[in-house]
Design goal:
Strand order of the largest sheet: 4-11-10-8-12
Structural class: alpha+beta
Helix content: 10-25%
Number of strands: 14
Radius of gyration: 16 Å
Shape: globular
Low-confidence stretches: none
Distance between the termini: 25 Å
Mean pLDDT: 94
Largest sheet: 5 strands, mixed
């Protein structure tokens, strides 16, 4: 699935402002409006994202909504903000565009390890966790039961340079286990193993990133 009907960049900027994301990032509302205007306020083919160094995943996840249910991070992922861009260089601007979003449904039931070289061969870049969160903030319906996605562009690097075997993912809670019944149907930030397949998780990607 490709994002073909994102809100305009102007509307995306206003939503982030309404949610207070600009304050979390130490930016002004005017800076977000200016970024949207700079890239074309009426564009609907790109996602406006903030550098993950400014607003980490743990701050964005609770802002997600599915109906009245707020998003959450699974309890055994207290280190979620240590999952940073792996092999992906951002431009250093506080705001930037993510273009050509795809949920990666065609890569459902592929392991991240298998999917990464395929994405690379297509000239695509795996989505960062924070980019995935921004996507769901702007387009909540992108999370569908049976069709959610991993964000394998963010990895945790262990001492010595080894990569953690987990990869972040966004899906919908069933309200079981430690999630709790109250969280049934809520947007969920969790993790999967790098070498495991999941029929209900695609591998999200983007065509390229543009400096903001």
């Amino acid at each position: 699935m490709t994002a073909t009907a994102l809100p305009t960049l102007a509307a995306q900027a206003q939503r982030l402002i309404d949610l207070g994301v600009h304050t979390l990032a130490g930016l002004t509302a005017a800076q977000l409006h200016e970024a949207a205007a700079q890239h074309g306020a009426d564009r609907t083919d790109a996602l406006l994202a903030l550098d993950p160094a400014l607003v980490p995943a743990s701050a964005l996840a609770p802002l997600l909504r599915r109906g009245e249910k707020p998003g959450f991070v699974v309890e055994d992922m207290t280190d979620v903000d240590r999952f940073t861009p792996a092999g992906i260089t951002l431009g250093g601007d506080p705001l930037y565009l993510v273009e050509g979003l795809e949920r990666g449904d065609d890569l459902s039931n592929w392991t991240p390890e298998e999917a990464l070289p395929v994405l690379t061969s297509r000239g695509r870049s795996p989505l960062l966790l924070t980019e995935g969160l921004h996507w769901v903030l702007q387009q909540p319906e992108i999370l569908e039961r049976g069709s959610c996605f991993m964000t394998i562009g963010s990895r945790l690097t262990k001492p010595g340079g080894r990569l953690d075997a987990r990869t972040p993912a966004l899906w919908i809670s069933n309200g079981t286990g430690r999630d709790g019944k109250d969280r049934k149907d809520a947007p969920k930030l969790g993790w999967c193993w790098w070498g495991n397949r999941h029929t209900w998780l695609g591998i999200a990607s983007a065509a390229r990133r543009s400096g903001g």
